[in-house]
Amino acid sequence: MSAIYILWLRQLKRYLRSRSRIIGSLGQPVLFLIALGFGFGPIYQKAGQGNYIQFLAPGIIAMSILFTSIFSGIEIIWDRQFGFLKETLVAPVSRVEIMIGRTLGGATVSSIQGMIVLLISMLVGFKPQSVFHIFLALIVMILTAILFTALGTAIASLLDDMQGFQLIMNFLIMPLFFLSGALFPLKGLPTFLVIITSIDPLSYGVDGLRATLTGTSHFGLPIDIFLLGTGVVILLAIGSYLFSKIQI
Amino acid sequence: MNIIQVVSLVKKFNNFAAVNDISFSVKEGEIFAFLGPNGAGKTTTIKMLTTLLNPTSGKILLNGFDPTKKKDEARESFGIVFQDPSLDEELTARENMDFHGILYKVPKKLRKERIKELLDLVELWDRKDNFVKTFSGGMRRRLEIARGLLHHPKIFFLDEPTLGLDPQTRSHIWEYIFKLNKKEGITVFFTTHYIEEAEKIAQKVAIIDYGKIIIQGTSKELMKKTKTKTLEEAFLNLTGHDIREEGANAADSMRMHRKMWRKR
Question: Residue A224 is part of which domain span?
């Protein structure tokens, strides 16, 4: 337990100490919120769907969680190259504990990040249902965060260096984001998109956030939470397995 | 009693045998130097001894434990200073120590005492709350030594502990290690390129080349066998004068990238 705690604490300390990282990672969601939110707002309104910011904000919160989570998972590659991973791997602690501690640390960081984006989106006009619903949304954020941090860890355990990073960015993170319903409603899509979007785990994160924050939902909150929870269990298991196989 | 016992150890990467059937033993309380040219198999051997790599075949006993089976027991038995730095630069010296102490389950009160004692020993107590990223190479190495000793290991592995350090720092570091060996009876297993350091400090020396141990014994025995006057001459005599090239690995190219992105 203490090992999990100290690994969690390390991730948190590193995050809180790098102000440039906090501010830097807020740039993208803010840009998306403003450019897309206000840019597409009028068309969305004309199509009879109401306020686009209200629709978009949960998607952008989910996006920032996705990015921050996968990056924290992938940080293992840096630790591996710069040696710190060795320090943890020769310690008398099970690999599963190390993996879980790191994952929870990364997930905490990206949940904080998600909350900050929620606050920013409220500044540009997003209105959540109530404070109670924000707490519910936080649960969805945490589940989403753990899921994608574990995914990042699993991927990082397979890679030796950052060479494959572009690949991950373009063939994993971007599709996960764009095909999740973060930017457009899932209703009335062509069949192939329906299939893809319902396989994308982020769809349920986005939908869960929409359900809690705005009260509109495509799949329904219980399904969102159930599938996110299942995803967390599966990816933690895969991540732990791959992490325990690391040899340096 | 032999605290490290290695029998017919082999590590193959694809078809290349990095470590090819080596056997040796280290007695408790001994200072043992493991010498060899670049790429001879030193680091690979240390990695297998310290549970980071699984051997292809052969047997290891570390403080009586097999590191492939009784991993945690084996891990508790040793401390290590790696060839590459392994500190978290974004944490302070004390936080790095604390992290280690908690991972090794050193109780809180004892941990505090030992951190003070060890940081004093390596003359870093004044800098305990500074970030490691502000430390020089020598300070980092000293901190790693202090950290490796925090859980009172029986065996201390040092992979090139003095590489890239100035002569003053080098002699300081050997002094600490020598003191520890005398005072606490800790077994020291180290590799180095500075052969004269090995001659001065090690009670026993093994020379490895192309994955095989070519000779082992005391420095005197090695010099006698090769009819040379210094251990360095003996070393060159045994391993030849050819320069060994080591391929750049992923870590080197990452370091280059990091330097490009970081202005500090």
Answer: 2-244
